[in-house]
Amino acid sequence: MEKKSKKMLYYMLIPMLFIMLFIYYEFKNIPTVIFLKENQSIKQNIFLKVNGNKKSKKNASINLLGIVPVGSVSIKPVKSDILLYPGGQPVGVKLNTKGVLVVALSDITTIKGKAASPAAVAGIQIGDNILKMNETIIKDAEQTKNIVNESNGQNITVLIERKGQKLKKIIKPVKSMDGDNYKIGLWIRDSTAGIGTLTFYDKNSKMFAALGHPIMDIDTGTILNINSGQVVSSSIVSVKKGIKGNPGELKGIFVNEDSVLGNIYKNTECGIFGKGKDELQNNSVAPMKIGLRNEIKEGPAKILTTIDKDGVKAYDIRIDKLLAQDSPGPKSMVIKVTDKELLEKTGGIVQGMSGSPIIQNGKIVGAVTHVLVNKPDVGYGIYIEWMLSDANLLMK
Description:
Blueprint lengths: L1 H27 L4 E5 L3 E4 L3 E4 L7 E6 L3 E11 L4 E4 L3 E16 L2 E3 L2 E3 L2 H4 L7 E5 L2 E2 L3 H9 L6 E7 L2 E7 L2 E2 L6 E2 L2 E16 L5 E4 L15 E15 L8 E20 L2 E6 L11 E3 L8 E8 L5 E11 L10 E5 L2 H7 L10 E4 L2 E10 L2 E9 H7 L6
């Protein structure tokens, strides 16, 4: 009898465990913020149902089985009439850093032997942006070098920016045996350039967005703190096909570099943003509505991208997984390239394709951002709502 009871208990516990795991998984995947169009209704699994209207509350209750309240989400009303021209065309990107970026520190050889980096001794760190030296606004690396050399070894007051905070440091240059110049023992960068893909252009506001992920400094691994930037025309000249363990690449050149198509103002977790000319408009397609994350379904979709002289084309992909995100970031969904032509030519997702808009049911729902190194046909995409938010186009 005792054995029978234990067996029955065992058979009861197993399904209860699966039910609890299911509930946990469903609850875990509810975001803390939901963007909602006017008069839109959504049902988020077994926990959440939200109706959007002019009198919508700022919060919605999360109810287990529609009865037991177990939490709440923040509701953000968004514009319901957003129409964007999807991109897909390559653009050349040129960025100028805010001041100069410290990418390395080094010791200096003097007549007395090796001296520790004066910048490091003063508290300068890799990733800092030098904004001013002795009240002179710093614009580029050459100017920085001249100010240091003309100091004659006198203290230099330096204003830096570190993770959004401004700090003052005092650096004492030392004379180097190399050319008899004064140095402070740091390596700096003032600009960068590359190729990316335009995600969208808004004809009304002239706002554009590209990449879907931030431009990082290759040496420091930090998001590049920019002062200004431009996008120019670009042309794809060749493709390096991606294989397992070795990501591919779109190789492009700047075209008519002096003709600026747009000015970049922001470099964020969700891409680069700015205002541009109507030449950024992709005239091969009509403007499209946007699809919020609650409108996206796992399944077939397309991307618009350029891989050769034929220009922007649509290629088949599949959205395999929608990820819960409570804060903006470039990894919102897992996507897989299924288009035979694209797989044959590129192997899947390659560098330079970042920013290619993802289209589902005639709406722009996101953009390509990353590739999995060991699975070149699989990568990540970002929800379009994150990019629209950073472009100041989303909220009512």
